[in-house]
Amino acid sequence: MNLTVFGATGGIGRRLVRQALDAGHRVTAVVRDPARLEVTGGALEVVRADLTDPEPLRAAVAGRDAVLSGLGARARKDAGVASRLTRTVLGAMEAEGVRRLLVVSAAPVGPAAEGEGALDRAMLRVVSAVLRDVYADLRAMEAELARSSTDWTSVRPPRLQDKPLTGRYRTVVGGFPRAGRFIARADVAHAMLSMIDDGATVKQGVGVAY
């Protein structure tokens, strides 16, 4: 497949690029600073862009089979970037008629797991209060997705870890895995790539966790 990855130098983005290349896909990585992209490969094209205007991005998404985004706030002070930058990506995709889009959101944005225990509910309340602005931004991003013409999927992980890829995790379409508290960034990337052709995930939030 021909894929475009936004946020390709981020924790999940660079893993998306590496895993996609390893799987034999052609990848266009859209970054603000190409020097920060450590991944290389003959099937990799790097596009420098600041994501302030959808027009220059049209060539980066035109004719692609899917677009994957790791865009989002890296700290509370960055709240607002996910919805703003995703809006730009959506503008470019809709202008070019590209439909498939997968983005990273977060577990607290979606519904709680069925039968969630008291401890997990308490932890969720604390995290949601601390990162209130970040999650508000992600909810705004998901609202932008819902208004768009794209076949979107919002992948909602819990606390992220920098650990090796396992390929073993749980997913719940429209919900969240019970007692799912952690997942590696590498496995989030793996899940996103595996959902590209999964029609059951289209226009859905998908909880993913160990």
Describe the structure.
The protein is α/β, with parallel strands linked by helices and 210 residues long. The chain has a single domain (2-209), classed as 3-Layer(aba) Sandwich (Rossmann fold). 33% of the residues lie in helices and 22% in strands. It contains six helices and ten strands. It has helices spanning 13-22, 58-61, 81-96, 118-130, 132-147, 185-195, and strands at residues 2-6, 26-31, 44-48, 66-69, 100-104, 151-156, 159-161, 170-173, 182-184, 204-209. An eight-stranded mixed sheet has the order 3-2-1-4-5-6-10-8, sandwiched between helices. Strands 7-9 form a two-stranded parallel ribbon. Helix 3 runs parallel beside helix 5 (132-147). The chain is globular, with a radius of gyration of 16 Å. The model has no long low-confidence stretch (mean pLDDT 91).
Give the helices and strands, then pairings.
Layout: E1 2-6, H1 13-22, E2 26-31, E3 44-48, H2 58-61, E4 66-69, H3 81-96, E5 100-104, H4 118-130, H5 132-147, E6 151-156, E7 159-161, E8 170-173, E9 182-184, H6 185-195, E10 204-209
Parallel strand pairs: 1-2, 1-4, 2-3, 4-5, 5-6, 6-10, 7-9
Antiparallel strand pairs: 8-10
Helix pairs in contact: 1-6, 3-5
